[in-house]
UniProtKB/TrEMBL annotation:
<dbReference type="InterPro" id="IPR031107">
    <property type="entry name" value="Small_HSP"/>
</dbReference>
<dbReference type="InterPro" id="IPR008978">
    <property type="entry name" value="HSP20-like_chaperone"/>
</dbReference>
<comment type="similarity">
    <text>Belongs to the small heat shock protein (HSP20) family.</text>
</comment>
<protein>
    <recommendedName>
        <fullName>SHSP domain-containing protein</fullName>
    </recommendedName>
</protein>
<dbReference type="InterPro" id="IPR002068">
    <property type="entry name" value="A-crystallin/Hsp20_dom"/>
</dbReference>
<dbReference type="Pfam" id="PF00011">
    <property type="entry name" value="HSP20"/>
</dbReference>
<feature type="domain" description="SHSP">
    <location>
        <begin position="55"/>
        <end position="168"/>
    </location>
</feature>
Amino acid sequence: MVRRNLFPVAGTDLGNRTGRNVAARDPFTALQTEMNRLFDDLWQGLGTGAPAAGAGGALAAPQIDLQEDDENLYVVAELPGMSEDDVELTYNDGVLRIAGEKKAEHEDQDRQVHVTERAYGRFERQIPLHRAVNEEQISAAFKDGVLTVTLPKSEAEGQARRIEVQRAA
């Protein structure tokens, strides 16, 4: 019978009984850690949730709130550490696109970086609105890392039209 090592740690690490490296002593903890890392990477790649630590410079799509009142739709997006110059907004065919890039900030080049958990890089989020919008009056404001886009509803919205069904010839 061929015996393979199924543990992600070296055989000498399994003898570590100091209590400092639980994953080295317990193969189930090591498996759990690897599964958590796998799912963190998966969710990061899909652009949902918060960016995982050490995600390699990828910035997840911004988290948004979509709100509505009688006159307007509001899209509120969190963009921490960014300014209005870093963000690009477009509206086309009922889809609001928020894109931008967060650049790495290294104030002191003489410092040696040990850990970087903050995410940097390019991002884009497209939000289908499924509602008629007055494109000429769309406005946006940026304050304290929060972008608020106001999209006035179009007057043509809300009027249902009955379509008569004809028998095909």
